[in-house]
Amino acid sequence: MDTEYRALQQGSSSSWCTADASSWGAAQQQKRQRCQASSSDQVGSSSNSSLKISEPQQIQEEEEEEEDYYMEDDCDDDGDGYDEDDYEFDEADFNQHLADKFDDLDLPPGVEATVPWLQKIAPKEEAKEPPKSNTADENENKYTQFKQFDTVQNFSDHYYAKNSNGEPTRAWSKRVQHDWKLLEKDLPAYIYVRVAEDRMDLLRAAIIGPKGTPYHDGLFFFDVHIPSNYPSGPPAVYYHSGGLRINPNLYDNGKVCLSLLGTWSGRGCEKWNPAQSTMLQVLVSIQALILNDKPYYNEPGYESYANTPQGERSSMDYNDKTFLYSCRTMLYSLRRPPEHFADLVAGHFRVHGHIILAACKHYMAGNDIGSVVPEDEDEEDSEYKSGDAGASSSSSTAPKPKPKPGLIKAIPPNGRSSGSFNPSLKVLYEDLLMEFNVKGADTRKFIVEKLKKNQPAAT
């Protein structure tokens, strides 16, 4: 090893010190020479090598070390060696093999940097593919697995969270559990309920607005408190209004006006009956009687105007305003989903966002609120471009005739009394498009359409 060290210091050109991966052929020639018991004292194949060994013992030791630097290949019995064509050279492996021999050698600083095969070869790391995002799949699973009825631990944001019934009686608990079973078994479509295990008096329901109404595809939330005298008295119900009154029976302060709840006068089966009335009946009544297609007539005394020109015009105007409020309620729920319903809100609008946006365009084209939105979107697009008031083979509404010249001043644009409807809905449409896109709804068609409109006109 002293001889090797001196050779490195003197910059010897001996092959065992200066051989590199590109001189593999010369190295194999040396092996054949050793196998043929060559007496040459030249270790390398370079003609200008100046290193000479005088002592036989040193020669033998160096030849043994030299043998280790090469691949462990035995010579053929006949002295011919192996065929180079049968060996596939791996330069990195060869350099690493050589460098390993100098691990224990005390080399001067900087030598390793000038000798390629003295530098350690960094192990090859397999390229790892970044984990694929499965957020969309997880969100979809949460929505599809969202049960219509389920129990939760508590409600921190419940409107009646501060109300306390004290220690519940056995009869009260038994009746509440009976109502829970009815809800779990018989809840109609588009109603979702969560009840609290540690507060049996608290319940929260989400009702999806029915088709054909100004509430269609909206989400409306109600908090329920079951009092200690239940079922002798009806439950208390609070509507999450967001400060909007979207129905004569749903106040902007959250009050729910319904005979069954004792918040409005009623007769016979309209009123709460301790022996027959249930929580299921309350929720179904809100869905069917309040969120209907012509909520204008829910106002006391207005039912007498039903089927009259004045009443129908007022009803249509009320539906216009109600749909605008419904859209605002959608935004309110998207940005502040009630506790335990975030998965339902995100999933619902991800699935239904496309049809809601299409409905907005359908209504801005002059069609009545709640009318069937054409399924053939391409055909609907052509109608918007041509300015037709909504003719479609898949729509239940017939094409609206053009107004007669003498009536143009009497009939407002798009047949609506309020000229602010379209501008207001256009703003809401833009906000909904953004929110639905964030939730993963199919908004590509509407975004492309928006980009085309924003492009400067060709000169």
TrEMBL record:
Segments of skewed composition (Low complexity):
12-50, 387-399
Q: Where is the UBC core domain?
A: 171-331
Residue spans of biased composition, Polar residues class: 132-141
Compositional bias (Basic and acidic residues) at which positions? 122-131
**InterPro entries documented for this protein:** UBC, UBQ-conjugating_enzyme/RWD
SUPFAM superfamilies according to UniProt: UBC-like
**EC nos:** 2.3.2.23
**Segment Disordered: which positions?**
1-88, 121-141, 371-422
- GO molecular function: any one? ATP binding
| SMART domains registered for this protein in UniProt | UBCc
Entry-linked PROSITE patterns: UBC_2
Judged by the first EC level, this protein's enzyme class is: transferase
Bias class Acidic residues marks the residues at 60-88
Which keywords, in A-to-Z order, does the entry hold?
ATP-binding, Nucleotide-binding, Transferase, Ubl conjugation pathway
User: What is the protein name stated in its UniProt record?
Assistant: E2 ubiquitin-conjugating enzyme
